[in-house]
Design goal:
Layout lengths: L32 H5 L11 E12 L5 E11 L9 E7 L6 E12 L5 E5 L6 E4 L4 E7 L8 E9 L6 E2 L6 E11 L2 E8 L5 E7 L2 E11 L17 E9 L7 E2 L4 H9 L16 H8 L4 H15 L1 E2 L11 H7 L1 E2 L1 H14 L3 E7 L19 E8 L2 E5 L18 E5 L9 E5 L5 E12 L4 E11 H11 L3 H10 L6 E8 L8 E10 L1 E3 L2 E4 L21 E2 L3 E11 L4 E3 L6 E4 L5 E10 L2 E10 L3 E2 L4 H15 L3 E5 L4
Parallel strand pairs: 1-10, 16-17, 23-30
Antiparallel strand pairs: 1-2, 2-8, 3-7, 4-5, 4-8, 6-7, 9-14, 10-13, 11-14, 12-13, 14-15, 18-19, 18-21, 19-20, 21-22, 23-24, 24-26, 25-26, 27-28, 28-36, 29-35, 30-34, 31-36, 32-33, 33-34
């Protein structure tokens, strides 16, 4: 849907020029030698690169289209920062709705004589890359880039509308500014979603409203563990066009509502029309369904059949670009094509199924206050059987029919049905019963040489199973390395056996023999029973955090260990049995320790009853995690018996 604002010519729009004298932003090509000589960011000494400035101005042109002129300059500080020179500028290319034009870019270096040398990006090396039927990107790489270089580029994004502006990136930003310059007849909003201070200024210039928002010395949002989508937490401004108020004419809203979006999708050739296509039935599927009178089994049969027989081409989207019939014939398609086929076949099987528009975790949250189909990046099947609801994604090969796909848990989806049926609407995608659940059982002996030899059994349930399956498909060696040896120093694994690999309704059982040297000091030896849990290293050590801690599901870990020590050794004072609960009671851990003669039994139960924690909760969460990992990794000490 085009976002052009068709304005009346009588508005007499004046077009501002970003290249006017600007005290905050140097002219394109004007680079200070001091910036080229700089070797670090003054407010982030560890930075690999830093954005010197990122400035943009959005304005309405003479045709009423919103244009965004953007000017960016980046300093490369270290070799690891060279990736900042690979540029991708995304835009919505369907029906030429948007375009990138006027792109100019160059690299700056100092020559042997200390002179500034500019190297332009050859326009022949700037190319268009189609991501899918709707989206494209302009892609290029700066030449002659090395640590110390400065790169700079400028372009115009036509017909963008008012997009959100991100002050923050994965590298620090010295100065970021977004200016909106529109006629007073256009109503718009600018909402700051930031915890850092945003300088804002509004001016009225003639019949235009100019709003400027800026931020200085913005810290990088680096890889915070257990984050959903980085864009959800970056310091930013959300802008929206609200309405047009032309003199002598009724106010015209520029905002859609969800019924309008659903109606447009119902009439869309790539979506609603595809739901009316007859998918040729197969004798094999018909035969399988005849044996399944139970609705859940019918649903699971169709789900498994489509998963098995359709190959995903790794293109996401909510539409069927080439049509469901063509995809069904080719046995390959986009996520939209495959899941619309799934919905069709579920309906044919007599089930109550609807398309459900969703935004996956890495695509970010949907602001339900503003209606647009473009905020979704996937369509899945929403099935109701009695009081139970199921969410199915046939592109996801390892999630059983009874589990909500992991990348959709704790989100919302928009069910698409006829407006007059009131079956459409927002659905909360959450089920507290299935967990990310692990049970680890260890039986080990420590010999006189200080080596622990034993057998381990790891049972992965629900989302833990789903998490492990893609790596298992790459081979046992990669599986062992990722889940067992990489997180347990000195461990060697032998004779691993995997059960239930092909049955997604059962837990994944992993059994193996292992050896590991224990720590020694004089007559003492030390060991831990926190092996093969995935909880060996505390990921939450940073003092500050911008994003939620997002686990996505509830969690449960059970660790059972029986350790036999040599007859010539005895247990030093054993760690106490203990129970520890987070103040909000959302995390609890219980440890029980018993020892008789030379055998010690340990049982640890760790339970999470909450899938996420806000940045405001982080200080308490971090402190609890520190104590939690101290308990998990506590060393058990044995010492050599005194000679009688």
């Amino acid at each position: 849907m085009r976002k052009t604002i068709t304005l009346i010519a009588l508005m007499g729009l004046a077009v501002p020029v970003l290249a006017q004298r600007d005290k905050d932003i140097p002219a394109f090509g004007t680079v200070e030698k001091a910036d080229l000589l700089a070797r670090e960011c003054d407010f982030d000494k560890e930075a690999e690169a830093v954005v010197l400035f990122d400035a943009a101005e959005a304005y309405a042109d003479m045709m009423g289209q919103i244009e965004l002129v953007r000017h960016i300059r980046i300093k490369i500080l270290k070799d690891k920062g060279l990736k900042a020179a690979d540029i991708r500028i995304p835009y919505f290319s369907y029906r030429n709705d948007e375009s990138i034009k006027g792109l100019t870019a160059q690299t700056y270096n100092l020559d042997a004589g200390g002179n500034v040398v500019a190297t332009k990006v050859d326009k022949k090396l700037i190319y268009e890359k189609a991501l899918n039927k709707y989206n494209s990107e302009q892609v290029f790489t700066f030449p002659d880039v090395k640590a110390g270089s400065i790169i700079e580029y400028k372009y115009t994004h036509s017909n963008l509308g008012l997009a959100s502006w991100y002050f923050q990136r994965s590298i620090p930003v010295k100065y970021s500014r977004y200016r909106v310059d529109l006629p007073e007849e256009i109503e718009f909003t600018c909402n700051a979603l930031a915890v850092l201070p945003v300088e804002q200024k509004t001016e009225n210039k003639g019949r235009r409203t100019v709003k400027t928002m800026s931020m200085t010395n913005v810290p990088a949002l680096r890889d915070e563990p257990f984050i959903t989508c980085e864009d959800d937490y970056l310091q930013r401004i959300e802008t929206k066009l609200i309405a047009v108020n032309n003199p002598g004419m009724p106010r015209r809203s520029l905002l859609l509502n969800w019924p309008q979006v659903i109606k447009a999708l119902a009439e869309d050739e790539n979506f609603g029309v595809q739901m009316k296509r007859d998918i040729p039935r197969t004798t094999e599927l018909d035969s399988m369904l005849k044996k399944q009178p139970d609705p859940y089994q019918r649903m699971s049969t169709v789900h498994q059949y489509v998963r098995k027989n359709m190959e995903w081409n790794n293109i996401r989207g909510i539409g069927a670009f080439d049509g469901v019939r063509a995809a069904w014939k080719d046995k390959k398609g986009t996520s939209g094509e495959i899941n619309l086929i799934l919905v069709n076949l579920l309906k044919d099987a007599g089930l109550k199924a609807s398309p459900l528009l969703v935004s996956t975790r890495d695509n970010g949250r949907v602001n339900t206050s503003f209606a647009s189909s473009r905020v979704f990046n996937k369509v899945v099947a929403h099935v109701t059987i009695g009081e139970q609801v199921y969410v199915l994604d046939a592109t996801e090969k390892y999630t059983p029919s009874n589990l909500i796909p992991y990348d959709l848990m704790y989100s919302e989806g928009l069910a698409i049905e006829k407006i007059d049926t009131w079956a459409w609407g927002w659905k909360v995608l959450w089920d507290q019963k299935p967990h990310f659940r692990e049970t680890i059982i260890l039986r080990a002996n420590i010999d006189e040489q200080g080596v622990m030899n034993g057998n381990a059994s790891v049972t992965s349930y629900d989302y833990s199973r789903v998490n492990r399956m893609p790596t298992l498909k790459l081979g046992k060696d990669k599986f062992i390395e990722k889940f067992f040896t990489s997180t347990n120093a000195g461990v060697k694994i032998d004779s691993i056996a995997i059960e239930n690999e092909a049955i997604d309704s059962l837990p994944l059982n992993q059994s193996f023999a292992f050896t590991q040297p224990v720590n020694s000091s004089g007559d003492y030896r030390y060991f831990s029973v926190n092996l093969f849990t995935g909880l060996e290293k505390n990921p939450f050590v940073a003092d500050n955090r911008f994003s939620d801690v997002f686990f996505g599901t509830n969690q449960n870990y059970q660790i059972v260990a029986n350790v036999t020590i040599p007859e010539s050794y005895e247990f030093e004072t054993l760690p106490k049995s203990v129970r520890m609960i987070m103040p909000d009671t959302s995390i609890s851990i219980t440890r029980r320790v018993n020892a008789e003669k030379n055998v010690m039994a340990v049982r640890i139960s760790l339970e999470f009853s909450k899938p996420f924690y806000t940045p405001e909760e982080y200080p308490d969460f971090k402190e609890f995690y520190k104590q939690l990992y101290a308990l998990l990794n506590e060393q058990y000490a044995i010492r050599k018996k005194a000679k009688s």
